[in-house]
Amino acid sequence: MKRILIVKVTSLGDIVETLPVVADLRRAFPSAQIDWAADAAFADIIRWNPGVARVLSAPLRKFKKARSWKDLKEIAASIGELRAEKYDVILDIHGVYKSAIIAFLARGRRRYGYRNKDLGERGAAFAYNARFGPRPHTDAWRGMRVSVADALGYEFEDIPDHNVLLPPVAKNLDIPQGAPLAMLFHATSADVKKWPKDRWAEVARWLIARGYRIALPWGTDGERGEAEDIAALVPDAIVLPKLTVTECAHWIQASELVVGTDTGLVHLAHALKRRTVMLFAATSREHFGIEEPGRSTSVGDGGAPPDVPQVLAAIESVLDGNAPATSREAVGAGSH
């Protein structure tokens, strides 16, 4: 096995939780070149994994919104780059039309995809000449690893290795020193996934009483307003400035604890080995949750958001674990 292409196009959390497949493949095929095709919006996160040789990206989301000639030319150029290599195996572990088209355009002997009933979009089946086995009865993240391992005939280690190495940032991020930092990711793209602001404030005050400093990130003007509403109820809470994904990742790396809704940046916190609690209100905890005893856990479920005592119990379960609190490791480049 000399060349392998992973196709996982979006979104942030899915991209992050696919990274352990790279480590699995590297162990199974140490000399193989592993490339990855994705939407340009998420390409940088993949580049943070040193196991990936080439990231092949196109502005698919951007073109869908703006329909600009510039984006179309970039997409056309990316097809040429995609076809510059011939792969021994192409792994579409996304299973929708756009990922299937990428898999079909790539040059390769075997193009793996899910069985028809496991595809996100049935029409994607046209692209494959090989199929993964039956979808295993496990969460989505482990399921991807099982599917690829079974198809290519190897076993993988139980604990996922995301292997994320953050690049430095040029400017001073003013990350506070001294008291341990807790980031509360209250924002989410879907209102049904939100948790009430007064509950966030109650959790924040509980953490402050235990010596934590609270940081509230945001991405849109509306989310900034929500952060300011929470901060008004929490003495000394920090409403962060608008951050790039890389800058936010450095804040996460500097934190002792991350609590947040089912969003990509909370998955990133888990990948960066922070103590992490993920809250579920609308999606399936069993399918999309994170779980690593003593470090990461999920609480709540689709249609059954957690109450404050449940969230506090989940926080205590990760703070009382045996995993070391290494919030300052590899942070030097990110704090100045």
Automatic annotation (TrEMBL):
EC number: 2.4.99.23
Keywords: Cell inner membrane, Cell membrane, Glycosyltransferase, Lipopolysaccharide biosynthesis, Membrane, Transferase
Subcellular location: Cell inner membrane
Gene Ontology molecular functions: ADP-heptose-lipopolysaccharide heptosyltransferase activity
Annotated membrane topology: Peripheral membrane protein
InterPro entries in UniProt: Glyco_trans_9, LipoPS_heptosylTferase-I, LPS_LOS_Heptosyltrfase
SUPFAM superfamilies: UDP-Glycosyltransferase/glycogen phosphorylase
Protein name: Lipopolysaccharide heptosyltransferase 1
Predominant location: membrane
